[in-house]
Amino acid sequence: MVCFLNPPRACGYILLKPILSLEIFGMGAKVFSWPHIFVLSWGGFKGAVTLALGMICADDTGIGGQLHPQIRKKMLFHSAGAVGFTLLFNASTMRFLLKRLGKVREKRP
Fold it and tell me: Alpha-carbon distance 27 to 12, whole Å?
């Protein structure tokens, strides 16, 4: 599932990198670097948009009630599964990723 969810996020950040690196957005090239793009792609939104779209599709009136009830249930199930997987896998490995990229320092006793 990571192979399907993370590359579109990464492509979006890569395509927007020249714009987001401009000083007018208050970031600059140093703040919006390649390690930051990798972390943003790995972390994503934790499925907030995915779950909202799944809930809209599951609702009868959300898209005009044109979908078959079985399809609406499947869309909600798959969107909730993507959100759950993102939370379990991506969130639990984020600290390791940040350490590997050198963005987090170990606390010294």
Answer: 17
Say if 107 falls within a structural domain: no
Q: Tell me which residue range forms the domain holding 83.
A: 2-100
Q: What is the pLDDT of residues 54-68, one digit of tens each?
A: 888 777 665 666 777
Q: Number of folded domains in the chain? A: 1
| Separation CA 77–CA 75 (nearest Å) | 5
pTM for the predicted model, two decimal places: 0.61
C-alpha angle with apex 51: 48 to 52, nearest 5 degrees?
85
Question: How buried is 54 (Cβ within 10 angstroms: 0-12 exposed, 13-18 middle, 19+ buried)?
Answer: buried
